[in-house]
Structures are given as structure tokens and as C-alpha cells.
Amino acid sequence: MTIIVNAINGNGGFTFLQLVQRLRSEAGVSGADPATCQGQNGELMRLVRWINDAWLDVQNKHWDWFFLRSQFSFQTNTAANQQLYTPAQCGTNNFGNWKRDSLRIYTTALGFPNEMILPFAPYDEFRNLYLYGANRTNYMRPSLYSIDPQKNLVLGGPPDLVGYTINGEYYQVATYLQNDTDIPLLPPQYQMIIVWKALQWYGLYEGAEEAVTRGTQEYNKLMLLLEKDQMAAIGFGEPLA
Known about the structure:
By secondary structure, the chain is an alpha+beta fold.
């Protein structure tokens, strides 16, 4: 039975399979809608790949999309005086980048009333201060943090054994859709942008100028709306004088 794809499903967005089906419809590819994204060959395989590549392209346009933001939290007393924490040790999933202005710290036993902002310091400056000489073992409540070249969190100074909870936000890395029922992280009203991007690639492959033109026009319109909705507003800096 053909799945109807002219409406967003009840889960709040198009599934991977529905996006492929919609691309087939917009491209005017003959035949029935695919019943799955798995194990396809020929033209249907290309449709599946174009949808997935288009989704990756949208995610990679900006690494700091709102829809890629997620939260993490971890405690420092799981290992004695541990100063460096990998993204996995911080409780992240599909990690891409840290949101540097989001970290906070509190003494675990005292809870949120003890919470304070944990400022960021550039790694070279941090390294010369906290990863140097006697400061390497000057254990304390961390008062700032940095990110090393491998994107690990490094605390300064190294935490004492009191036990602290650190929480914040990070951006997920761009990922492919895998299962037929996977739904992109995009807000539902913008998910057709994936189809329009994929339609451009279909048109280029088939030499179909109309498909390229329509895909580009619709993609550009939705991208403008998506960036307004899912990117931080540009502010003004401090006055020069």
C-alpha cells in the first residue's frame, strides 16, 4: 500500500521514508513509492542517497543551529582529581561542539542554590596557568574551564574531592538518517528544505533544468526562514568610544 506523504505525520515531522517518497513525487519519477529506504537499487537508491546527503548538507551549513543544541551534566568525583573530561565522560551524545558560554558548576551536595557560571578561557592561556608547575596539583573548586585541541573539557584548577556537578549545552554533530522511521531534528515546518535540496541534485544528475530551478528557489526561501528561526540573532558590540 502506498503511504500518503502530502501531510506531516503525527510524530511531528516527515520520516526518512516519507521524505524519499516526497522527492520521488516532486521529481516526477515514474513508478510506485518505495516501501522502504533499505536495500534500494538504481534510481530509488539515488533518491535515498540524495535525501540523506541533503539532510547532512543542511546540518553542516551552520554548526550552531538551535535544533542541534542539547544538554549535558556530569560529576567530578567519579575519579579522584580528574581534570580532563572527554565529551563521552560529560554525558554527551552525537557530540559536535561545545556551547562555550553555557557551562555552570555547583557543589553536588548543596544543589542548585550553589550554582555559578563557569567561564571559558582560551586553551593556550589556560595551559600556561593551570597545566604548569605546582598548579597541576593545586586542587580546588574549578573557577573556569577550557577546551583542548581534541575538544575535551579541561577544568581549572583541577577539582578537589568535595564533588561538583557541571552542566551545560553542546551542539550535536551532523548525522545521516538510517531507519525508515527516523525523523530529522528540524522543526516540521522546515523539513521540506531537505526535499528541495535533494531535488537540485536530482535535476543536475538528470539534466532537468526545471527541477534544479524549482529546487533552488524553494530551498532558498525555506533556508531564509530557517536561519531566522534557528540561529542566534546578531547583536551589536560595545561602542568604540
